[in-house]
Each structure stands twice: as C-alpha cells, then as structure tokens.
Amino acid sequence: MDGLPTQQSEEEELISIDPADGSEVARVRCTTRSELDQMVATAQTALENSGWKRLLPHRRAAILHKIADGIQREKDTLARLQMRDNGKPLAECKAMAESAIGTFRYYASVCETMETDVTPPRSEYVSLTVLEPYGLVACITPWNSPLMNDATKAAPAIAAGNAVLLKPSEDSPLLAPELARICREAGLPAGLLQVVQGRGRDIGAALVAHPGVRMISFTGGTHTGRAIAKVAAERLVPAALELGGKSPHAVFADADIDSAVAAVVAGIFGSAGQSCVAGSRLFVERRIYREFVDRVVKRTERLRVGMPSEPTTEVGPLASFHHRERIKRFVEMAKAEGGRILCGGHAPVGGVYDRGAFYMPTVIEGLDYRARACQEEAFGPVLVALPFEDEADLIMQGNGTAFGLACGIWTENFKRAWRVGRALEAGSVWINCYKISVTSSPFGGFKDSSLGREKGLGGYRLYSQVKSIFFGL
Ligand code: NAD
C-alpha cells in the first residue's frame, strides 16, 4: 500500500474520494459481466418496444428538452456532487452543468430540424437519404468533466434514436447515475440510458467487445483510444475517439500582452490543467520571451489555490491523490531533462493543503521542444515555456508533437494569424482568445488527438447510419 486514499476497495466496488480533503463521498458497485449482458438485452428490448427510433423527431426533442429542464432544476446539487467527486472549483462545476443543459437543448433542436437529402430527381427514379440510429451505443467518458462529457455523448446519441450504455470513469462515478435518473424522470423510455460502472480494463473492455454494441464513442487518453480502436477494427464497428492534447499558445511580439498573459495563465491553470485543451506549451517570440514569461510567472504565483468550495479559489486540488503522484513524477522528469522550475513544482503544505491532493501551478523553461515534458500530456497544472525565432520556427516546434487538439495564437496581425492558424495542426484554433467552446461548433483534433468530431450537426450524424432509398417512378 502507498498510503494514499484509495479509489477502489475489493474487486466489485468503487469509492469516490473527495480530493479536497481525502474523505469518502460514496461507494458504487461495479457492474458484473452478467449484468452487462442483461443491460445489453434490456437496451435492445427497450429499443424495440419503445419505438424510440420511429418516434417523430419533435417528440424525441420534447423529451430532450425535459432532460435539460431536469438538469437545470438540479444544477446546483449536480455541481456540488461533481465538486466532491473530482475536486473542480464549484464555479467551474456550475459552468459544466450549464454546458450539459445547453447540449441537450441544442440536440433537441437538431433532432427536430435535421433535414433529409433528396437527390435531384431523374426521369425514372428519385432517391432520399435518411439517417438511422446504430442501435446500441457505448459511451465511455473520462473523469475531468463527467457531466459535460456524458451529455456531449448521450444527448446526440439518444436524439438520433439510439440506446446508450454510459460508462463513466472509475475516478468520477457519481454523475452518470444522476443523469440517467433525470433522463428517466423526463420520460426517456426505461432501458435507453443505462450506466455501466467499473474499471476500464475490466468492464470497459468487456463493453467495447460486446457483440450487442454497434458503435463506440470514447473520450479519454490516447493510449486507451488506440486499444479501443483495435477492438473496434476487429469487430468492424465505428469508433469515435476524443483523446489527449499538448496544445500550444503562440505569442507574437505585437500581441496584446495583457490579454495574452491572462489567457495563457487561465488556459493552462483553469481546472488545474485537467482539461484536454489545456494550453500546456507556451511559445513566445524571442524578443519578448523574457518579459512575457516573467509576467506569466508573476500572475501564476498570484493564483489562489484552495478549497474548491471557496468562491475565491482559482485552482482546486487535482482530481485524485494518484493523479497528483503522476504530476509529481512528470515534474521530476522535466527537471531531469534540464527544465528549470520558474514557479510551483511542489505540493503546498500546511492547513487544508495537508489533507487534499493539491499541487502548485508550475511553469518550467529551458527544455528542448523534443523533451518528453514538451511532448507528453501531463493533464495537470504544468506549463512549459519555449522561445521561437520566427513563424517557420514556431510552426516547426508547434507541430512537433503527436497531438493536434487545439492552439492559441496571439498577434494583432490578421494575415499572420490566418497563416499560422492554417499551418498549425489543431482541431480548434483560437485567435486572441482561448478555450471558447460552443455546442454548435465541431470539436476534435488532428493526429493522435482524435478520430472524428463531436458537437455541431456532425455530432448528431456521428450516431447515425446513412441509408439511401430509391423510388422507381
Ligand atoms: P482513460 O483513457 O484512462 O479513461 C477514460 C475512460 O476509458 C474511463 O471511463 C476508463 O474507465 C475507460 N477505459 C480505460 N481503459 C479502457 C479499455 N481498455 N476499454 C474500454 N474503456 C476503457 O482517460 P482518463 O485518465 O479518464 O482521462 C484523461 C484523458 O482524457 C486525457 O488524455 C485527456 O486529454 C482526455 N480527454 C480528452 C477530451 C477530448 O475531448 N479530446 C476531453 C476530456 C479528456
């Protein structure tokens, strides 16, 4: 035993630990293999008996709106539960609940308005292209933003007429059952959204391999995504994968420096860096490098690290004690590679810090862009700063990772912003802003960050199969 508060007991139970103080929040029983078989059968029966996929879209939309109403009514309770389940500051948890509400409303509208394509009629036939659900979809989510990630998958999947088996992370198991209850209370036919609990390597692996699952939607680490993709390839079922990132900020000398400093700090240290789009690599044009990085460090040192329930807290604890150990190892690795710690680089001590999984926001410089600390995702409050000489150098370094999820570009030169935005390999490009996310814009990444795109109209089509129907005339 390593003496850390543990998230698992015997084989069949998960323990949710509040990372702010190490206390136990709740215990959740893991789903067994035979229960999984039963859930698949229940979902298939529900699909057949409820007529969900044949229900007129506006009736499906009405239920999605009621689900949004249910989350709205309970949003404060849900936000508090998430805060205890994974340690995010309460304000952020409330924003996640708002996002879940918006997602259900958006896909209610999409479901109601999605059009059927008609090919130009020929003299002897006309053809219609219609969308049909896959049937049973496995939705697997990570621990960092459970309610928001669950909604991003469940809303379009059920809007498109599917049944869902939702598997939350073993490190944040408490929100998915609440969402399933709200869905039931809103009138979603029983069995159409069920929750599978347990560890990824056990029940998660059984879920993706289950012959009853016809489509897989996964958000999590790239390593896991690759393993799931192999199973999906063997089974010939589609897999949509939203994976990790090592997103760069590029700051040119002509940037609005005040705004850039604020956004760089918020972009990495919001959610204590536990965000797939965290701007974890900072590239600054060499002639302003020292001044800019010093300002980033000063602002970082002023961040209020504390209890997630305190309204003034800007950085809460990490989501688990085990994750803090990973971050400590990551920073040690950066030091061993020659990185200089400009601030942070340790867990705070004294008072509330002694009981929680806190780690100080950390800025590191002096590394080559090929160093492991500049290549691998920390998924924590760690920023690496590097200078660049010119556009070509920035693009070479910025694109020099396996990831390609997002990037931020800071310049007042519109043409340059456009050029660099097109050249950087990233699914989301934020120019003079960062982490803007709306449900109507597609979201995903290049290279090892993603396979497919969520959100937007494509997020609905993701859960639909295309059928062409020809009428002879
Ligand atoms: P993870 O890959 O360890 O786990 C994610 C989920 O997959 C969990 O529910 C887990 O139980 C399950 N799982 C694990 N192994 C499995 C297997 N073999 N078969 C089926 N399911 C399995 O990731 P995590 O640590 O929970 O989350 C952190 C990662 O998620 C980071 O890399 C982060 O960048 C990424 N993430 C990406 C996005 C995005 O939209 N691109 C959003 C949030 C988080």
TrEMBL record:
<dbReference type="InterPro" id="IPR016161">
    <property type="entry name" value="Ald_DH/histidinol_DH"/>
</dbReference>
<keyword id="KW-0560">Oxidoreductase</keyword>
<dbReference type="InterPro" id="IPR029510">
    <property type="entry name" value="Ald_DH_CS_GLU"/>
</dbReference>
<feature type="domain" description="Aldehyde dehydrogenase">
    <location>
        <begin position="9"/>
        <end position="469"/>
    </location>
</feature>
<dbReference type="InterPro" id="IPR016163">
    <property type="entry name" value="Ald_DH_C"/>
</dbReference>
<feature type="active site">
    <location>
        <position position="242"/>
    </location>
</feature>
<protein>
    <submittedName>
        <fullName>Aldehyde dehydrogenase</fullName>
    </submittedName>
</protein>
<dbReference type="InterPro" id="IPR015590">
    <property type="entry name" value="Aldehyde_DH_dom"/>
</dbReference>
<dbReference type="Pfam" id="PF00171">
    <property type="entry name" value="Aldedh"/>
</dbReference>
<keyword id="KW-0558">Oxidation</keyword>
<dbReference type="InterPro" id="IPR016160">
    <property type="entry name" value="Ald_DH_CS_CYS"/>
</dbReference>
<dbReference type="InterPro" id="IPR016162">
    <property type="entry name" value="Ald_DH_N"/>
</dbReference>
<dbReference type="GO" id="GO:0016620">
    <property type="term" value="F:oxidoreductase activity, acting on the aldehyde or oxo group of donors, NAD or NADP as acceptor"/>
</dbReference>
<comment type="similarity">
    <text>Belongs to the aldehyde dehydrogenase family.</text>
</comment>
